[in-house]
Automatic annotation (TrEMBL):
InterPro entries referenced in this protein's UniProt entry, alphabetically: Bac_CellDiv_Activator, Cell_div_ZapA-like, Cell_div_ZapA-like_sf
Gene name of the record: zapA
Nuclease as UniProt keyword: no
UniProt source species: Sporosarcina aquimarina
Known role: Activator of cell division through the inhibition of FtsZ GTPase activity, therefore promoting FtsZ assembly into bundles of protofilaments necessary for the formation of the division Z ring. It is recruited early at mid-cell but it is not essential for cell division.
Location in or out of the cell: Cytoplasm
Name under which the protein is recorded: Cell division protein ZapA
Length: 86
């Protein structure tokens, strides 16, 4: 199997610098980092007493929750499309 070229990019998330290595474009990695940073700052704004670890965990929980909701919605739309085609 051929290996995909890996890129290394440095991003800032919630005041911390991270180096991310992967095969996605730099633009994609920056977009992900920006969305995570924005979500963490939003959660912290609503809960100013939370420490960084709790903000990070709540960000992860909220992100996975959103992902699962979108996945279920996608499956419903795929079922509807299948009904329309069939």
């Amino acid at each position: 199997m051929g290996e995909e070229k890996k890129t290394r990019i440095t991003v800032d998330i919630y005041g911390q610098t991270y180096t991310i290595v992967g095969t996605d474009s730099s633009a994609h990695v920056r977009q992900v980092a920006t969305l995570v940073d924005d979500r963490m700052r939003e959660i912290r704004g609503m809960n100013p007493y939370l420490d960084t670890t709790k903000v990070a965990v709540l960000t992860a929980v909220n992100s996975v929750h959103d992902y699962l909701k979108l996945q279920a919605e996608k499956e419903l739309l795929e079922q509807e499309l299948k009904k329309l085609k069939g």
